[in-house]
Amino acid sequence: MRFKIPALAVVAGLAAALAPTLAAAHEVTVKGVTVAHPWARATPEGQKVGAAFAEIKTDKDTSDRLIGVSSPVAANGEVHSMTMEGDVMKMRRLDGIDLKPGQSVVLKPMADHIMLMGLKEPLKEGDLVKLKLTFEKAGPIEVEGTVEAPGAMGPHGLAKQPDDDSMGSMHHDMTHE
Q1: Residue 168 included in any domain
Q2: Of 1, 84, 94, 160, which sits 20 to 30 A from 166 (CA to CA)?
């Protein structure tokens, strides 16, 4: 007896089977430090500065410090802090970000984030951008994130960075074990 399986059912089955693998591709862990959900915002033609974002997590026994960022798409990268003082947005370069054991730090729009300066070409929506985050103990961690729309607040059409509970009660966890 032959069974006909609709193509959509086959695709859905493959997607379900690959979901843990695809989700894991959104994060890289080295020596107890995980960089998850990296992404950047698209930039207009001629703009030489862009912004990138991610979540950085440490396991319960690991402390570390983010000490540098870089990308092949930019002359240099820096970690910046953004605050609002009245109606004035203030940005300043940070020398690093300390990570305590079991801590999650979310680099996101309107807060701490990665500045990509001296862009070699515009960041185009839908492209991938490589980022290298360097830590005192874990060393360099290389990730690849999607370039989202210019005003995006999170990756993949989300309204915020995954795992960022400071912007609402929704908690999104893409780690699978």
Answers
A1: no
A2: 94
Residue spans of beta strands (DSSP E) within the chain: 27-30, 33-41, 49-58, 64-70, 74-85, 88-94, 97-99, 104-107, 113-119, 128-135, 139-148
Q: Is residue 167 part of a domain?
A: no
Task: Tell me whether residue 110 is in a domain.
Answer: yes
Work out the burial of residue 176: count CB atoms within 10 Å of its CB; fewer than 13 is exposed, 13-18 middle, 19 or more buried.
exposed
Number of domains in the chain: 1
What pLDDT score was predicted for residue 164? 62
- CATH (domain of 64): 2.60.40.1890
* Assigned domain for 137 exists: yes
pLDDT along the chain (177 residues), means of 10: 50 42 65 96 96 97 97 97 88 95 95 97 96 98 96 80 51 31
pLDDT at 175: 30
